[in-house]
Design a protein that fits this description.
Layout lengths: L16 E13 L2 E7 L11 E7 L5 E7 L8 E7 L7 H4 L7 E5 L16 E7 L4 H6 L3 H6 L2 E8 L8 H5 L10 H6 E7 L10 H7 L17 E6 L2 H13 L13 E3 L1 H4 L1
Parallel strand pairs: 7-8, 7-10, 8-9, 10-11
Antiparallel strand pairs: 1-2, 1-6, 2-5, 3-4, 3-6
Length: about 270
């Protein structure tokens, strides 16, 4: 098994990459972890965007993958949520990093899971599976999002209860967040669901849409309304493809940075 690289001499800064320092690591399960790193003073991003992070490869060249930023845009550190792939070229090593270790950070964040790509609306639904929750952890802690919508509904579907990353923080409606006031937090609705273990809400997101459980906590219509609702999708390629098709059947149109619509996906992760 490849060992993590902790020798800073093996890292080379460039026009595209800075070398940062890991500040925090938390393992949620055997297959899921969070890491935080230092943030350059010049690094700016929009809530929901992604950036490249990585380590030196066996050939000495940077080995990089795209990761959505999970931290809010005001945070002094950058946070990422990752799966562990034991034979993955990057994650097989990234999962072993420790505070103090060096790590590559790309200098140009980008992406389509941003509010700029959505038309104005009343409710914002963020539908995620697995690590697809990451960009929504940034968006849900952005005060500007609550100025745009009457309700912000975060939906996270996982296989096991242990995979409900950030569950306690979301369950508390982001208690203690330095920039959200009580009115903002009252607009946030958290809908966790588990597919392979007992939990208070069970089933895939599509099942919750079809039987109405997705909308139970909302004060609005108990169904999707294209004229009022806006939807963001992030998860596996199959999940995004299925939900995008479902939304289009319901009359939703996909948006982009240059042409806002009623729902958005992260095109970079879908291909």
């Amino acid at each position: 098994m490849n060992q993590p690289i902790t020798d800073r001499d093996q890292f080379t800064e460039s026009a595209a990459l800075s070398v940062e320092t890991v500040t925090y690591v938390h393992h949620w399960t055997d297959g899921l972890f969070t890491l935080k790193m230092t943030r350059p003073a010049s690094f700016r991003f929009r809530s929901g965007e992604f950036v490249m992070i990585g380590l030196p490869g066996d050939n000495g060249k940077p080995l990089l993958r795209a990761y959505s930023v999970a931290s809010p845009s005001y945070d002094e550190e950058l946070e990422f949520l990752s799966i562990k792939v034991q034979d993955g070229p990057l994650t097989s090593r990234l999962q072993h990093v420790l505070p103090g270790d060096p790590i590559y950070l790309g200098k140009k964040p980008t992406g389509t899971l941003v509010t700029d790509a959505l038309l104005p609306g009343k409710r914002l639904f963020m539908l995620s599976t697995g690590t697809g929750l990451a960009p929504f952890m940034s968006l849900v802690r952005d005060p500007d999002v609550y100025q745009m919508f009457e309700e912000v509904i975060v939906v996270h579907s996982v296989r096991s209860v242990g995979e409900l990353a950030y569950h306690d923080l979301l369950e508390s409606k982001l208690e203690g967040d330095p920039l959200l006031d009580d009115e903002d937090r009252a607009k946030m609705i958290y809908v966790p669901t588990v597919t392979r273990e007992p939990f208070r809400t069970q089933g895939r997101i599509q099942a919750l849409i079809d039987d109405g459980r997705l909308f139970e906590q909302s004060k609005g219509p108990q169904r999707f309304v294209p004229d009022e609702d806006r939807v963001m999708l992030c998860g596996s390629m199959a999940m995004i493809k299925d939900h995008a098709a479902d939304l289009e059947r319901r009359g939703f149109e996909e948006g982009a940075n240059n042409k806002p619509g009623q729902f958005v996906i992260e095109r970079a992760f879908v291909g």
